[in-house]
Automatic annotation (TrEMBL):
Annotated transmembrane regions: 12-35, 55-78, 90-108, 133-157, 197-220, 240-258, 292-315, 335-356, 368-389, 409-430, 465-484, 517-535
Protein name: Iron ABC transporter permease
Main location: membrane
Top-level taxonomy: Bacteria, Pseudomonadati, Pseudomonadota, Gammaproteobacteria, Alteromonadales
PROSITE patterns per record: ABC_TM1 (PS50928)
Signal peptide location: none
SUPFAM superfamilies per UniProt: MetI-like (SSF161098)
Subcellular location: Cell membrane
Zinc is among the record's keywords: no
Origin species: Colwellia marinimaniae
Entry similarity comment: Belongs to the binding-protein-dependent transport system permease family.
Length: 542
């Protein structure tokens, strides 16, 4: 039977792919552990406590703010009768397309002392200097937490909204029969039932926060990610950078384990839940307040930043900038297309192996290949350098030994390192999309081709791949967009004279010259909108 295929070649290649994707992380961890024995005492006595404190405070602040924004907005959209809920239902997803470092720069430019807001206030009230009035400083740790929360809360909103919408309303009605009001039923029944989904979403927000580099770097908030970057490039100490990366990896591992533990106690509802709900009827003033809260998230998380970018693009763009933008855009497209294609091919191979092979442990390669998504881009870049650098030196030594000209840094000094890092980082996205689609294929379609004398290759090309085509396209697009937006790994691994849209915009932000890259920033945002449109359409079909 085809469903019990026992190809040794397929088995070997699946485990080899998973191992290759894990090797850089393992090399980095080993290097960090060995380095930490010599450097940790010095790091702990100097900077590590501050880095850890800032990292934990930032993570706590972002998660708390994102929970407030995401859970409240999801509850208002699914449980109440607020005005404009049909429009807000999908508009609240838009901030996810906006990179946090862009929002950070735009709001700094808007609210800084020399920005239009404070200039207007001084003009209106006749203030002459900062001593005449108080104004909040956005370039602080709380400011960084707010910027990150504004673009990350849609993770919590999306998953929490889905959890609320899929809840069995018979449970809510039972609580009402026991004497609870509509609001009491929400807090005592609906919200606890959604807790596993909220925990998953919070873990995603936490991992994205730990992985952030550009926002905290621009705001001068020293976290473990900025410390890794500064230690390696500023001080040239790869061992210390590996040690700090190992600490960050331990934090990420703790988050992953905590998230899995939170899902361990998940209780499934009935197979056919009653989804017809009775909305909590708010008064007109309550509806207005709830609607204003949701609109504020949409405006400050997306509409205002994109409007500022459009104004900059109109005022400052010229032909010379457009030519540079086209060049960097081609570079971004090149690495993103290759990374997305490779990631989808790997996901297809491992997903079908998990479905169709007889190996008792056939699920292991799939799980291992998805671990890279939990690795921050800065750490992943260190892992690539720790792996590919020595391999390049070995290849050069081998070439000299054989009498050939040394090829140079063909792995660590080329776009190969960037593409490899992107594949390791985003294979989990392709895996999740394709495996979900594979699970929806009836088991009978695995056996039917074999009963008609069709071999494995024929079954894959004539049955499975045509069915999986929509999922393949979605997975490719999701990885492509994430690769276009990725900054830390690209910033650390890019070859000389090679820029992408994300790295170029970051350099312009660092030089306080985002106006010259506003058009490129708009392109990144527009690419980021593509998966949001797909997510919204898929949710509407459910």
């Amino acid at each position: 039977m085809i469903a019990l295929n026992n190809s040794k070649t397929w088995k070997f290649s699946s485990y080899l792919i998973a191992l290759v994707l894990m090797v850089p992380v393992l090399v980095m961890l080993v290097g960090g552990i060995s380095a930490s024995t010599q450097l940790f005492a010095h790091l702990w006595q100097t900077v590590l406590p501050t880095y850890l404190e800032n990292t934990l405070l930032l993570a706590f602040g972002v998660v708390m703010l994102a929970l407030i924004f995401g859970v409240f907005s999801a509850a208002l959209i699914t449980q109440t009768n607020i005005v404009f809920k049909k429009q807000l239902r999908w508009l609240l997803l838009l901030p996810l397309a906006m990179p946090a470092y862009l929002v950070a720069y735009l709001y700094t430019d808007l609210f800084d002392y020399a920005g239009p807001v404070q200039r207007s206030l001084r003009s209106w009230f006749g203030w002459q200097s900062p001593n005449d009035y108080w104004f909040f400083d956005i370039r602080t740790l709380p400011g960084a937490a707010l910027m990150l929360a504004l673009v990350l809360f849609p993770y919590i909103y999306m998953l929490t909204r889905g959890a609320f919408e899929q809840q069995d309303q018979n449970l809510i009605r039972a609580s009402r029969l026991l004497g609870l009001t509509a609001k009491q039923s929400f807090f005592k029944v609906a919200l606890p039932l959604a807790r596993p989904a909220i925990a998953v979403a919070a873990s995603l927000v936490l991992m994205e926060t730990l992985a952030d580099f550009a926002t905290v770097q621009y705001f001068a908030v020293n976290t473990l990610t900025t410390a890794i970057y500064d230690t390696w490039l500023g001080y040239g100490d790869l061992g210390a950078a590996n040690a700090l990366a190992s600490v960050l990896m331990l934090l990420v591992l703790f988050v992953v384990l905590a998230e899995q533990r939170s899902r361990a106690g998940l209780r499934h509802q009935s197979a056919r839940p009653n989804l017809s709900r009775e909305l909590i009827q708010l008064s007109f003033s309550q509806q207005v307040i709830g609607s204003i809260f949701c609109w504020a998230l949409v405006i400050f998380g997306f509409l205002l930043p994109i409007s500022l970018l459009i104004v900059m693009a109109v005022q400052y763009s010229d032909v010379a900038q457009l030519s540079v933008l086209i060049s960097t855009g081609i570079n971004s497209l090149k690495i993103s297309v290759i990374a997305a294609t490779v990631a989808v091919l790997i996901a297809l191979s491992l997903g079908l192996y998990q479905r169709l092979h007889s190996d008792k442990f056939r699920h292991i390669p799939h799980h291992i290949s998805g671990f890279g998504y939990a690795v921050p881009g800065t750490v992943l870049a260190m892992a690539m350098l720790s792996t590919l650098g020595p391999l390049d030196h070995w290849l050069n030594d081998l070439a000299e030994l054989l009498g050939f000209s040394p090829p140079g840094l063909i792995l660590s000094g080329s776009i190969f390192a960037i593409i490899f890092a992107l594949v390791v980082r985003f294979s989990a996205i392709a895996n999740g999309t394709i495996v979900s689609a594979i699970k929806q294929i009836p088991q009978s379609l695995d056996y039917a081709p074999a009963s008609l004398g069709v071999n494995l290759t024929g079954s894959l090309t004539r049955v499975h791949l045509p069915i999986l085509t929509p999922a393949i396209l979605v997975a490719w697009l999701l990885v492509f967009v994430e690769a276009m937006k990725e900054l830390p790994a690209v910033l650390l691994l890019r070859p000389f004279n090679f820029e992408t849209l994300s790295s170029q915009i970051y350099q312009l932000i660092s030089d306080e010259m985002l106006e010259q890259g506003a058009l490129g920033a708009i392109m990144i945002v527009l690419f980021g909108l593509l998966p949001i449109v797909l997510l919204n359409k898929s949710k509407e079909k459910v």
